[in-house]
Write a structure and sequence with these properties.
Pathway: Purine metabolism; IMP biosynthesis via salvage pathway; IMP from hypoxanthine: step 1/1; Purine metabolism; GMP biosynthesis via salvage pathway; GMP from guanine: step 1/1. This protein has 5 helices and 9 strands. By secondary structure, the chain is of the alpha/beta class. It has a single domain, classed as Rossmann fold (3-Layer(aba) Sandwich), CATH 3.40.50. Helix 2 crosses helix 3. The longest helix is centred in the first third of the chain and has 18 residues. Bound molecules: xanthosine-5'-monophosphate and magnesium ion. The site of xanthosine-5'-monophosphate has 21 residues, from strand 5, helix 4 and strand 8.
């Protein structure tokens, strides 16, 4: 796959790099204010959250620690199974920590609602969520997001960390894919 193929694969750009950057500025400013004087541990959910984590954490003035988890609720396809498995757990003891989960997208919300209760059971001082995207029309579980980028329509999107079969994560924007990508 080369760059021109990627261009053909994109159907519509929903959020530009500027849109994402503007929202990241706002989220970072709020997080700095809310966590002033408190310790903060950012927990990124691999792999989709890598771009949000990198771009959000570099905008924070607040000192942070960073850790990563990998969970799986999707295969290489586009539908949630509702079954969550820990593929890689945290290295950090959460006792007494202020945890901010950093996510790329809340779709059904099943992954995050499971993750929040899992992390809450480990004795942290607090657990909150920051997510760049959310699909309100896909919600199956109630998830309270403290820091949200954008609500988007219930369509499969790629870019800014989000993949289709591990491709397109590096796109600096959020876009839908042309039907031929799925059709083979
Ligand atoms: P749920 O449904 O549990 O989904 O909220 C959470 C995880 O599913 C992935 N996901 C997507 N990945 N485009 C993607 O590339 C999408 O439109 C999409 N919707 C959900 C994502 O990894 C998320 O963390
Ligand atoms: Mg994914």
């Amino acid at each position: 796959m080369d760059q021109s193929d990627v261009g053909n694969d994109i159907e519509k750009i929903l959020l530009t790099s500027e849109d994402l950057g503007k929202k990241l500025d706002e989220m970072a400013a709020r997080i700095d204010e809310d966590y002033a004087g408190r310790d903060l541990l950012l927990v990124g959910v691999l792999k989709g959250a890598v771009m949000v984590m990198a771009d959000l954490s570099r905008r924070l003035h607040h000192p942070i620690a960073m850790d990563w988890m990998a969970v799986s609720s999707y295969g290489s396809g586009t539908k949630s199974s509702g079954v969550v498995r820990i593929l890689k757990d945290l290295d950090t003891d959460l006792t007494g920590r202020n945890v901010l989960i950093v996510e790329d997208i809340i779709d059904s919300g099943l992954t995050l609602s499971w993750l929040v209760s899992n992390l809450r059971s480990r004795g942290p001082a607090s657990v909150e969520i920051a997510s760049m995207l959310r699909k309100p029309d896909a919600a199956q579980a109630d998830v309270e997001v403290k820091y949200l980028g954008y609500d988007i329509p219930n369509e499969f999107v790629v870019g800014f960390g989000l993949d289709y079969a591990e491709n397109y994560r590096n796109l600096p924007f959020v876009a839908t894919l042309a039907p031929h990508v799925y059709g083979g």
